Amino acid sequence: MQFARRSLLLFGGAAAVAGLAGCNSAGGAIRFLLDWTIEPNYTGFLLADERGFFRSRNLNVTIEEGAGGAAVAQQIGVGSPYFAGSGSGGGTAIARSAGVPVKSLGVIFPNISTVIFSRPERPINTPQDLIGKRIGLVAGSVTVNEYRALLRVSGIDRAQITEIGVNADPSSLLAGDVDALIDYAEQLPASLQSQNTPLVTMALSDHGVRLYGLNLIANETALADATRAAEIRAVAEAIYQGYDALRADPAAAVEVYMTRYPEKNRAYVERSINITASLLGQGPVGGQSAEGWQATLETLRSIELVGDNVTVEQVMA
Questions:
Q1: Cα separations (Å) of 192 from 13, 261, 263?
Q2: By CB distance 3.0 to 4.6 Å, which of 19, 21, 170, 194 could disulfide with 268?
Q3: What is the overall mean pLDDT for the chain?
Q4: Helix (H), strand (E) counts: the chain
Q5: Of 74, 33, 96, residue with least CA distance to 235
C-alpha cells in the first residue's frame, strides 16, 4: 500500500492529508478526487481498496483528498488530471447550473446527513423550535444553504432567528454563545457524542429538506467516451461495493479505518461509521432516480441556487 501526501489549507491552518493508492499495476493510474479529507464517513473508499474491489476490476486507482465540493466539481469539470470524484447532490446541481460539465454517476447517501444539534437544556426538536433561538452558521458552508431550505419548507422567516457567525468547531455551543449548530451527523455531532456530550439532533431530511447527499461525479466529456466511461463506472461500482461492505459489517470497517488512521479517536470512528451505515439506507448503494434528482433541483430552486435551465438529464448520468 502506498500513501501519497500533500498539503491543504484548512480553516486557516496547513494540514497534511493522505491519499490512498490501489495496489495494481494494470493500466494507467486513475486519480479519483474526494471532496474532502478521509474522515470515517469515507471508509467505503478505503474498503474498496482494502478488500480488493479495485483490483478485481483490473483498476489502478489513487484516491486523493480535496478542499471542498465546489472546488472539486470545478476540477472534475476541467477533466484533467481528474475526471471523477465525489461531491453532494446539491453541489453537483449547483455546479451544473454554473456551467460546470459534471454529472452524477450515483448516490451513496440518499438523503443529506445534515443535522441541527443543540444541548438538552435548550433543545431544538422541530424547525419551529428555532424561532427566538440563536443558531451558529459557518460562512461559506453548504449547510447554510440547507438551513435556508429548511426555513423555506417550514415557512419560517429568518428574521425570527438570531444567526451568529461561528467557526467550524463546537466551542460556541459548549460556551453557550449559541443555542444550536448545524453540521453533518457523522462528523462534529458524532465527535461530541463520542465524548459523552449530551446532544439533541434534528435531521433536516426528516423535516422536508429533500436533497441527495454524498454522490460520485464525473466529467461529462469523459463519460461520452465509451472506453473511459466503462473505466469510470467500474471505479464507481468498486466504491459502491466498499460501502456495501461497510453497511454489512460496520465493526470490520472501523478496524480498517483505525489501521489506516491509528491517531483517530476510536469512539468517534465507531460512532461515525455506524451513523454512516444508517445513512446508506436500505436500497442499492449508488442508486439514483429522476424523481430524486427532480426533488433535489426543486429544493435548490426554492432558495434560488439553481435556475430552470438545469434539468434532471443534465445532472444524472
A1: 22, 19, 17
A2: 194
A3: 91
A4: 12, 13
A5: 33
Evaluate if residue 9 carries a pLDDT over 60.
no
CATH annotation of 5-111+212-315: 3.40.190.10
| pTM summary value | 0.89
Q: In this predicted model, which residue has the larger pLDDT, 18 or 32?
A: 32
The CATH code for residues 114-207 is 3.40.190.10
Residue 158: phi and psi, rounded to 5, are -60, -25
Same fold for the domain at 5-111+212-315 and the one at 114-207? yes
Instruction: Tell me the one-letter amino acid at 178.
Output: V
Provide the pairing of β-strand 134-137 with 180-184.
parallel
Determine the pLDDT at residue 28: 67
Q: What is the pLDDT of residues 60-97, one digit of tens each?
A: 999 999 988 899 999 999 999 999 999 999 999 999 99
